[in-house]
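Ticket 4471: requesting a sanity check on a complex prediction with pyridoxal-5'-phosphate. Repro inputs:
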Amino acid sequence: MLIAHLNRQLLEREAQGLRRRRRTAETPCAPQQRVSEDGQPARELLAFCSNDYLGLANHPALAEALAEGARRWGAGSGASHLISGHSRAHAALEEDLAAWLAPWIPGAKALTFCTGYMANLALLTALGDASATIFADKLNHASLIDGAQLAKAAGQRYAHGQLTVLARQLAACTTPIKLIVTDAVFSMDGDLADLPALLALAEQHDAWLIVDDAHGFGVLGPQGQGSLAHFGLHSERIIYMGTLGKAAGLGGAFVAAHPTIVDWLVQAARPYIYTTATPPALAHALRESLRLIAGAQGARRREQLLQRIAQLRGLLSALMAKHPTLGWRLADSATAIQPLIVGENTTALALAEALDRRGLWVPAIRPPTVPAGTARLRITLSAAHSAEDVQRLVDGLAQAAKEQE
Ligand SMILES: *Cc1c(COP(=O)(O)O)cnc(C)c1O
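Returned structure tokens:
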């Protein structure tokens, strides 16, 4: 019965072109990858889809730091943080992260998590009890949506970036605790939340601002300190979540916030308590990643990334000017996430396939992940891309544009 039920749904998805398949990388994370799929021979692809914004995922110094961490700490942590899995390596990483955020959140303490998904579930379920209301941007990441659903708190959503709507919702709210939750960089659009205005609203309405900086940490702001540094915000009202599997090149996540909030998470956050701590070697390697990000290498890589972003936007604008009838639109994004909005689902799929035939890997993103009529190619750039890589992508798109016209 269960298997028949699932097979029926799988067939439905297949018929709608929505069945998802994994490609298997045969080589490390990098723009040039050998990948295989469905038992067919492996192919060389030039990828524009990872979140490895600084090209650190395959950095020899980080691979070495991971190996060194394993030599020093062994392979696993052995238990959850509250039992016996919390090591000096984890504690030292938390101290580094607290110091990293302290200029923006005075007095902050930091707490590490296995993944950003778990950190967001932890935050929203542990802070969002029955005396709270959670206010969320409609384009927030799935992990924030799931966290809000799991929480006992009341929930309110506001249309993307519509802060006048949020202000009305806050003014009408009667619960003693108010939590505003937002992505700092929206993952399907690449645009930045207006964090200064959100913080002002939080202050005005005695609310707290939870910032998910998955795509800003390591990339935005001086020394890659993230979106709070980018905007120069200072407040004890900010609860910051950063992920360590994107720009930081490894994996894991952390929350930095008022010490009482961190203490409470340790007491009450089930995704923190009921899971095995990450291997201490990972925490050890993450400290090296922070040093790379904040140092000269990080600065150089952020500069390269900015050059690639400017190059891609310039070339794509020229291409669209040449083919106005296509109706393509480049999202208004200054970050490494550069969506090319093409409209119809079939158009986005056909484009992704045309690029694939040319050895270019760019994912097509369709509803329900994005609003109907805004299907897109989600191009992500990395400091590891060369100018030639970006040129190849735009050449591929130019050929696909001619085919479509
Ligand atoms: C990737 C991402 C997460 C989840 O982080 P993981 O460490 O991959 O679980 C959370 N929020 C946003 C906005 C993300 O892009």
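Notes from triage: The pocket of pyridoxal-5'-phosphate is lined by residues 115-117, 120, 141, 143, 183, 187, 212, 214-215, 243, 245, 253 (CB under 6 Å). Leaving this open until the requester confirms.
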